[in-house]
Amino acid sequence: MQNLNNYTNIHIFGASGFLGKNLYDFFKCKDYCIHRVSLREANWKICLNGREQVFINLIGKAHDHKGNSSVDDYFEANVGCTKTIFHAFLESKATSFIHVSSLAALEEFESLQPLVETDECHPISWYGKSKRQAEEWLMEQKLPENKKLIIIRPPMVHGPGDKGNLGLLYKLISKGVPYPLASFDNRRSFIGIDNFQYFIEQIIERNNVLETGIYHVADDEAVSTKEIIAIIKKVIGKKVLDLSLPTFVIKGIAKMGDIIPIPLNTKRLKKMTADLLVSNLKIKRTLKIEKLPVTASEGLEKTIRSFNQSK
Questions:
Q1: pLDDT digits over 24-42, tens only?
Q2: Strand (E) or helix (H) holding 114
Q3: Which residues lie closer than 8 Å to 303 by C-beta, 6 or more apart?
Q4: pTM for the whole structure
Q5: What is the pLDDT confidence band of residue 1, given thresholds at 50, 70 and 90?
Q6: Which of 76, 154, 285, 303 has the most CB within a 10 Å radius?
Q7: Chain centre distance of CA 224
């Protein structure tokens, strides 16, 4: 039996979600002493056993597409819980606090140039604004000399078990429904779960070269919606037609959706068809990473195959 003192002790807050479950399984298979901590437990601080070295904060409330959440729900989860966990970090022996924010704290819809950490923030939704407020509060806190704060901003993270927009697009195409927005040619940055986990591990293992601050994490390559659709068709083995309606027709329909309740409106159209690019150069240069282990296309194919297998 190996001595636990030789392990890196990691405490994950928010381990029941998509990212948390994947990170827990990833670290569990390696030489780490991994703990799941839930703020729902009345005595959650008991889990802090005095050997903790790294806090990873994944707790947060994401987009509510059904519209059932209030503004207070977002700020309590994304700001209030972050404050609670950070205060516990200051009281603990842990030396690293990794806070998983979101690209939405910076930009939610469009960027023709790859976004960098020093760009001006323009959050729009309650989700984005609450994520940004948490970042600002954390960066204002005074840290002891032996403690470090790393804030990471991923774009959409996907992987097996993902229940986001990628799964919805897969369902549409796999049913043989023509994709109606093929006339738009956009590119977006994503990050597959394998690359996300790789970044987290590198942050932990090479923490000495990182300074407190904000870092963007993303796949090395941006991909277009057309490329994603091509991967879906390859996985399902079906020839599904693309519907290239003129862009002015689609935009007209979207404007109608701003007035009457139809599935498409201008905000949703922009999110589906605009360019949103992210630069990961800062963290790669700092950690001396030349190339991520999984390409964007390989990660997307792995995710889509998981959808196909779970049918």
A1: 999 999 889 999 999 988 8
A2: strand 111-115
A3: 158, 159, 160, 162, 166, 192, 193
A4: 0.91
A5: very low
A6: 303
A7: 18
Single-letter amino acid code for the residue at 282: K
Express each pLDDT in 173-198 by its tens digit.
Answer: 888 888 777 778 889 999 999 999 99
Encoded tokens for 205 = 């293992």
Phi, psi for residue 226 in degrees, rounded to 5: -60, -40
| Residue 279: other Cβ atoms inside 10 A | 17
The amino acid sitting at 1 is: M
Query: What is the rounded distance in angstroms from the CA atom of residue 291 to the CA atom of residue 190?
Result: 15
Which CATH number does the domain 4-228+267-309 belong to among 3.40.50.300, 3.30.200.20, 3.30.230.10, 3.40.50.720? 3.40.50.720
Q: Are 296 and 219 in contact (CB under 8 A)?
A: yes
Give the integer Cα–Cα distance in Å for 307 and 300: 11
> Alpha-carbon distance 253 to 273, whole Å?
14
For 219, residues 6+ apart whose C-beta sits below 8 A from its C-beta are: 189, 190, 191, 192, 195, 280, 292, 294, 295, 296, 299
Cα 164 from chain centroid (whole Å): 11
Structure tokens of 310? 């779970």
Band (pLDDT 50/70/90 cuts) for residue 162 is confident
